[in-house]
Design goal:
By secondary structure, this protein is an alpha/beta fold. It has five helices and five strands; from the N terminus they run E-H-H-E-H-E-H-E-E-H. The structure holds 1,3,4-trihydroxy-5-OXO-cyclohexanecarboxylic acid.
């Protein structure tokens, strides 16, 4: 039944979701995602298989992205956390692996007070960005990846 295998990839400080600054990042953790994906995909939920990985380290994220390429993953939903705004190394990785990637953020980074959060190094190498919907950002990104594969 599975047609699409997607990697949900979380960067630094996203291992404590639900506990970390809940006023900004919300009170739910990644365990809320299957329910939200079902809300968005309905009957088609079974067509999607999700794998999860989180690391606080830039190198481990790059290794996991390279592995996603080798595994022939159909897409990556990537919240790179603060590395979004700093990491040329992650941008370089996304530039060559040729796996469709959606950049996600729980918060609306464009509306936050620190100007640096409005810059994304990885944004040039993703098919789109979803930000500001809490955990629903991830579910919408999953839907966007399905749509991406079916647009032709
Ligand atoms: C974040 C936004 C980033 O600016 C921040 O460094 C994070 C989380 C978000 O999901 O809103 O760690 O990516």
């Amino acid at each position: 039944m599975t047609r699409y295998r997607f990697l949900i990839l979380n960067g630094p400080n996203l291992g404590a979701l639900g506990k970390r600054q809940p006023e900004i990042y919300g009170t739910s953790g990644m365990d809320a995602l299957p329910f939200l994906v079902h809300k968005v995909l309905g009957d088609r939920t079974d067509e999607v298989e999700l794998s999860y990985f989180q690391s606080n380290s830039e190198g481990a994220l790059i290794d996991r992205l390279e592995q996603a390429r080798e595994e022939g993953m159909h897409g990556v939903v990537f919240n790179a956390g603060a590395y979004t705004h700093t990491s040329l190394a992650l941008a370089d990785c996304l530039a060559w692996i040729n796996v469709p990637c959606v950049e996600v953020h729980l918060s609306n980074v464009l509306a936050r007070s620190e100007p640096l959060r409005q810059k994304s190094y990885i944004g040039r190498h993703v098919i789109g960005v979803v930000a500001g919907f809490g955990m629903m950002s991830y579910a919408l990104a999953v839907q966007a990846l399905v749509q991406h594969h079916e647009k032709e």
